[in-house]
Amino acid sequence: MLTRLIPSSQEPLPIIGLGTWQTFDASSKAAYPQLSQTLDVLHVAGGSVIDSSPMYGRSEEVIGDLTADLAARDSFFYATKVWTTGRQAGIQQMEASLRKMRRARLDLMQIHNLTDWKTHLDTLRDWKAAGKIRYIGLTHYTDSMHAELERILRKEPVDFVQFNYSILDRHAEKSLLPAAADRGVATLINRPFTEGNLLARVKGKALPAWANELGISSWPQFFLKFILSHPAVTCIIPGTRDPAHLADNLKAGEGELPDEKTRERMAAFVYSI
């Protein structure tokens, strides 16, 4: 697995991780064997980032249950979010996240969809100084909020910014990705398949023959390689509960990445379908 550096610390981070929205919100432990295998696939391939949120139902608790007895539990990069209003409510929610994920310290705490971000940012700085979290982040998932994310990261020191970006949704290239690079902020990319719309678009379609030159053997790898080829992208977090799907995704984090000319060729091919 290729890695990229977190600018604020120079810590290497594997470039593909795992999102847990909907996928890890297991209503019973009957789903645990499959989800445990998914985490094992992530670890064996060299991935580490697991991204969650209180918004994602039981996903934090499920992650805590599944990793509690793993020998590799401390090799994962645990990221979650605060998603409420008010300082005390935020503190209580983050303390609950620590308990649910069974961690004494979290790697990354993000302000989910910028909810009450000014209040929570002060708290996150206190928590970082106290060693309860290692990194501070901001998130959103729509193009319409990219300008606000950029405005904040240009004004406030943060370690991470998470947002949407895909081969057919390139709005982040206009200003947000360059701003993150300029400010030394690591990026986590959500919605890399545009909520599944991309996969539906290419269903039954053959990959171009030249994709093999980049070691691409599936459409998910095609879409992820495109995103990873942008130098300001630090890590992508596609969500899945299926270990086979994750194994396929993770292959995009190996080998050669497209150059600028190839990126545009990839985008043009998808637009033509």
TrEMBL record:
Listed PANTHER family: D-THREO-ALDOSE 1-DEHYDROGENASE (PTHR43312), NADP-DEPENDENT OXIDOREDUCTASE DOMAIN-CONTAINING PROTEIN (PTHR43312:SF1)
Per the UniProt entry, the signal peptide is none
**Protein's recorded name:** Aldo/keto reductase
Q: Which segments constitute the NADP-dependent oxidoreductase domain? A: 16-262
Source domain of life is Bacteria
